[in-house]
Structure formats: structure tokens, C-alpha cells
Amino acid sequence: MKTTQILFLFVFCMGFSNLNAQINLGKKVKNQTNNKANREVDQGINKGLNAVEDGVKGIFKKKNPNEQVKDSASTKQKQGTGKEAQNVKPASGTPTLQAYSKYDFVPGEKVIFYDDFTAENIGDFPVQWNTTSSGEVVTTNLYEGRWFNITNGRGATVLDAPIVLPENYTIEFDAVKQNDPNNNNGSDFSFEILSTSKPKDISYGLARPGDAAIRFAFEYTTSYSTYYRDGSPDLSGRDNIRLLDGKKYKISIWVQKERIKLYIDEKKVFDVPKAMSKNYKYNMIRFDRGVVMVGNIRVASGLPDVRNKLLTEGKLVTYGIYFDVNKDEVKPESYGTLKDIATILNEVPDVKVKIVGHTDSDGQDAANLDLSKRRAASVKAELAKSFGVNADRLEIDGMGETQPVAKNDSPVNKALNRRVEFIKL
Length: 425
Prior knowledge:
This protein is α+β, with helices and mostly antiparallel strands and 425 residues long. The chain has helices at 2-43, 45-48, 50-55, 306-313, 335-347, 365-387, 411-417, and strands at 68-70, 77-79, 110-115, 129-131, 135-138, 147-150, 156-159, 168-177, 189-195, 212-218, 222-228, 236-239, 248-256, 259-264, 267-272, 284-288, 292-301, 315-318, 353-358, 394-400, 419-424.
């Protein structure tokens, strides 16, 4: 019996010792893991990007010149006149609409400028632009659509014709930052809104842009700076947000007289109340100091008066509901516009509306008609699911390309025809 008790005590001690050793081992592993994680953070945000950068190697690999690419808002395929790569959706998938729940950006109502580069030949420099650098229109193996690939980070790239910017307007574009082998500090690029007395001199005031400007720099972190020859305002700011090489971002800028706001995807990064001087008229947008791929560049003025248009006039035309090419899924960037519309509908519960989709004329008539109806159905579904609007109050229809508001003869006019309308019943 005594022997049995001693044996039991021995086994118990050994078990406790093993348990204690496992606990200590677990703590050591946890500590080593934390230490390793901290070392990795300290040593290398850049190393952390290797997986992304490896995934976009060969992003501009050119393929058979007879391959076809899809044009905007249609299912028609156009023959490529240059060397094109097949468009493939990113493996990460589409972000959810709910991820943009604090996103309050609403695009301008009247399109001033639009370029998605679908009118260009692959491999050519786009006709609406000018540069002291170099670039070409490309397609990629990761992201849909056509892109303007600015390939030399040492120069400036601007619209060829001066652009007249009003007091209130929005600027939107997609951007994919690339590795710059000429920059030892990594890749970066800048975007500027300028007032210049020398619009033909696109390098005028390159270090301190034009006569007046605000510059957004997407470098190791994101920053802004203002430059004015009259000395006011003189501001700068920085946010600890870094754009990763090879990843697509939506950049949205909202100017309301002196106030300017900048968004990166769903996050509002800057909101500066006195950044734009009242003493200057702005007439140029410019990319410089970076190797970057840009697409879907849209400049629009004014904000839609949602309440008055919908309730009083009985018809609201919106360009702030976004879809990918030939797709009917509502993109998350639509959140601000949908939220405004839903707020009105929920405040006035007796109002019923018809949601009508429209496309441009690219592609087959029947395909465009079907696409416009599916997009209207998706808008209805999002209003009901994400914003609590009673679906019984929402009818849907699609007109395809049959009711254009402009000739389908330019990127700007095609953008005007791609729209969603809300008609009070």
C-alpha cells in the first residue's frame, strides 16, 4: 500500500512537472512569437510587402495583339490594336458595402472630365494628356479595365487642355503604386491641384507647384502640403497611411470652396477647412514624382440636391452608384450616395420610387438592356438590406442604351449616359 502511495505521488509530481513545463514552454513560445513580430515590424514594412509585390511581377506583360478586351459598361468585346494582357479579377475579392459605413463622400453631379482610357490603343500615350516623363495605356493581369501607366517618376503628367475648376467639385481616380527602381526610399507618387499662369509649361514650379497648389504625396506615409505665392495659406499635414505597391486604391477628393477632403478607399484621411485659397483660380491637375498606374479619372462639379430632386421635381439622376465593367454588383464606394437617398426615403415613408438603370451604347443592345435591369435590382437590394428601406416601395426597370442624355462619342459623354435614376411614383 505504501509502495502504491509513493508510486502515485511520483506520477502526480511528474505530471505536474510536465504540465508546468508545457505552460512555461507556451509562455516562451508566445514571448518569442511576440518578439519576432515586433522585430518584423521594426525591420520591415517593406519586407511585409514582398508577397504583394511578388504577386504583381509581370503586371504589364504584353500578350497576343489579337486578344480582345471589354469596353466600359457593355458586354461587347473590341479588338485590341496593340499588345494586351487578359483582365483578371484580384484574388482578394470585392470589399463589402458595410465596410464603408462611415464613408460620406458623394461625387459631383455634372461631369467636367472623365477618362477611362477605353478609347485609346494599348501601348499608346493617351491623347488627352501631356508629360515630361513617359507612359502608355495598358491592361493588367490583376485589375480590370484599361490603365494609364506612368512609367518614369522623374517628370510631370497633366491634362493637355487646361481644366476650369469651379468652387465646389470632386476628383476621383483609381491608383496602383508601383516599385520605382530609381528611388532608394521606395515607391511614391504625388497628385496636385494647381493654379498656374503658365498652363503650357507643365513643369512650372515643379518643386513648389504653379502659382498656387495643394499637393498630396503618397510616400512612406500620406501627406499634404499647400504652396501659394502670396504666402497664405501655408499648411501641411501627415497621416500614417501607406499605399502598398501593387494594390489598387480609390482616391477621392472633395473641394468645397476653401475646404478640401481626401479619402483613400473608405477612410477619410484629410479634412482641411482652409486649404484652398480664395485668391486663385485652379486650372490644372498633375501627377508627378512617381511610378503609378491610374484609371477611371473623373472630375465633376456640384452636389446633387437629393431631397429637392426626388421629392419636389420627382426625378433624381445620380452618378455616384458604381459598378465594375459589365457587372451588376454595387461597389462599396457607392455608400455615401446610397445613404443620402435612403435617408430621404426613410424620412418620407409614403413615397414610392422606380429605380431605372442606364448604360452607354457600347455593346449589344440586348446585353445592355439586361445589364441595366440587373443593376437596378442590385440597387434596390442594397437599399433594403443595408439601409432598411422597405423593398415594397421600390420598383425597378432598365433602359439600357435607349435613353442617352449625351452622344456616345467621347469618354465624358459615355460617363453621362451610364447612370441610375430614381423616379417618384
